[in-house]
Amino acid sequence: MHHCGRCRIPADNRAYWIAKLERNRRRDQKSRRALRQAGWQVLVVWECQTRAARRAQLHVRLAAYLGKK
What is the predicted pLDDT for the residue at 69? Predict the structure, then answer.
């Protein structure tokens, strides 16, 4: 549910999937908040960002996150 263009909600039982994805979003948001409050830094990497076409971009992002040049 990050709007990259690859996300597709199944046509069958659409209401179920929308509700499920929304629950997942809220759960993940709550988990990230709890981790930050516990002193952790959080980086979200979506599956689509690991594909070959976006891999170089991800490497730059990971290096910046980890504080490497």
Answer: 54
pLDDT (0 to 100) of residue 56: 94
Q: What is the pLDDT of residues 30-39, one digit of tens each?
A: 999 999 999 9
| Token pair belonging to 31 | 């988990």
- Does any domain span residue 5? no
Instruction: Count the domains in the chain.
Output: 1
Q: Quick check: is 33 in a domain?
A: yes
- In 3D, which of 9, 17, 6 has the Cα closest to residue 48? 6
Q: What is the distance between the alpha carbons of residues 43 and 36, in angstroms, rounded to a whole number?
A: 11
Helix, strand, coil percent values for the chain (each to nearest 5)? 60, 0, 40
Tokens of 69: 């040049």
Identify the residue whose tokens are 């959080």: 42
- Note down the domain range covering 35: 14-66
